[in-house]
Amino acid sequence: MVATDDKFSTQGQSPPFDLCKYLAERQALVEAALEHFLPVTYPEKIYEAMRYSLLAGGKRLRPILCLATCELASGTMEMAMPTACALEMIHTMSLIHDDLPAMDNDDYRRGKLTNHKVYGEDIAILAGDGLLAYAFEIVAQTENVPAERLVQVIARLGRAVSAAGLVGGQVVDLECEGKSDVTIETLNFIHTHKTGALLEACVVCGAIIAGISVTDLQRLSRYAENIGLAFQIVDDVLDITATQEELGKTAGKDLQAQKATYPSLWGLEESKSKAQQLVAAAKAELEPFGESARPLLAIAEFITTRTH
Amino acid sequence: MVATDDKFSTQGQSPPFDLCKYLAERQALVEAALEHFLPVTYPEKIYEAMRYSLLAGGKRLRPILCLATCELASGTMEMAMPTACALEMIHTMSLIHDDLPAMDNDDYRRGKLTNHKVYGEDIAILAGDGLLAYAFEIVAQTENVPAERLVQVIARLGRAVSAAGLVGGQVVDLECEGKSDVTIETLNFIHTHKTGALLEACVVCGAIIAGISVTDLQRLSRYAENIGLAFQIVDDVLDITATQEELGKTAGKDLQAQKATYPSLWGLEESKSKAQQLVAAAKAELEPFGESARPLLAIAEFITTRTH
What we know:
The structure is a homodimer.
Chain A: H1 19-37, H2 44-54, H3 61-72, H4 77-98, E1 108-109, E2 112-113, H5 115-119, H6 121-140, H7 147-161, H8 166-176, H9 184-209, H10 214-241, H11 244-247, H12 253-256, H13 262-266, H14 268-285, H15 294-305
Antiparallel strand pairs in A: 1-2
């Protein structure tokens, strides 16, 4: 409904929503905040290693989702910015550790050498640990947000990363590597945990910071679940259809590693269709929020139209 | 003053303090709480790996310190127990990651094979990540403690683990390996960060949970700094003087790795004497707390008298 070139969706009440401009503006704010939170100090090597991966670009979709739901629920970007940065730090930690030789053994990430290829495995492990711990510190030190909300946010973040979230998803993913008989239930478990849990945390944490009602929080949680799974399906599709240059990482990696993916279970067309259905379901959850949900609507649509 | 066999220290006002009994009782409570917080669920492998290292014994000195300062400041053990367990989870995470081949490459810990020797490097890395994230979740979900105190605790825990704490200390430690010209300042930096920061967090977090005054918190912080450094010096001394059986890990490891230690800079006798001085300074900080500080006094003394 509210794609960047759609002038008819809002019945003339407001100008069309420019997602590109919206994302670019918020991306710049997030970059500045990340830079602010992580200056270089002694021992420089570890700060440089953390900054190398944290400031390596990327769409900053996770922090932007967090800022967006805080604003949707009548909060300010300032209130959500520490949590938004924490989410990006946590995401970066998971990438650094996933890329290690003992895990996915990846040499490139976002078009650059992976952290351990530059700094060594020991520093890469510690850089991940440092980012994870620091993420919780900066959320806990957020100003002008009631502490009752911050502890809720921290509990959700912790759970999203723990064995009940990202770590659990990664473990099952590793167990399934090279297996030809992975079921759709297992694949769903992997993705709702490995990537979905953190995406959901992005969406709900921004709203919790703004003091949203429980009912509205549940709607946003379902929105997040749907876009999270859609995001992963599209990721799998792009791994097959996109080139290495577009992707900024080794393309066709999943195929090489014989990883179970949605296209390998459903085929490419069915996968694309499922992603569309999930995005439609996500958008339906946003209806009660009216105009204030326009960024989230547009982000949902962006997931299925992105090419890298 | 308040050693386990000293009947004269309290001028007849109360029975002598039995540290062994005190530690054993609290250790049992901590074991039960750790077990409660980490049941096995799907995916079992990661929970088993986390439990393998978390429930591998150990003195539980960190959680016991946290419980002790909470009680000293008129709080209950129940209020501090989630944070006490979180501290042990964080400590265990640091051990699992430190033992990895890319770091200290240790095969044994507490007399058992290290985590990666049993579960593989990938699972060991993830087990550490999972324990770290879960630690913050359980602190944030503590009941019957004001959220304002919990966010203070979380900020301190995060800082204690981050590049400004444990991770920073470990990085400098790795940089110094095999170097013959490590200064006492660098060695102090390593230990006040690698082990001292988390020990200080144990002591101050328990007191924050109980709502202690800023002045008293500073006293406890200085107590912790002093016992933290004393603890490390004694650790270095024991690495030379204790046998592998007593230590539960490879003895003489520091010497083999050509690590700078206090005995290598000061010699054994001077190191022991410095540890005694630090313990005396720690005990002096406890004077205003009177009888309520007896466990902390006894723990300080225990550090210099322990043999493993």
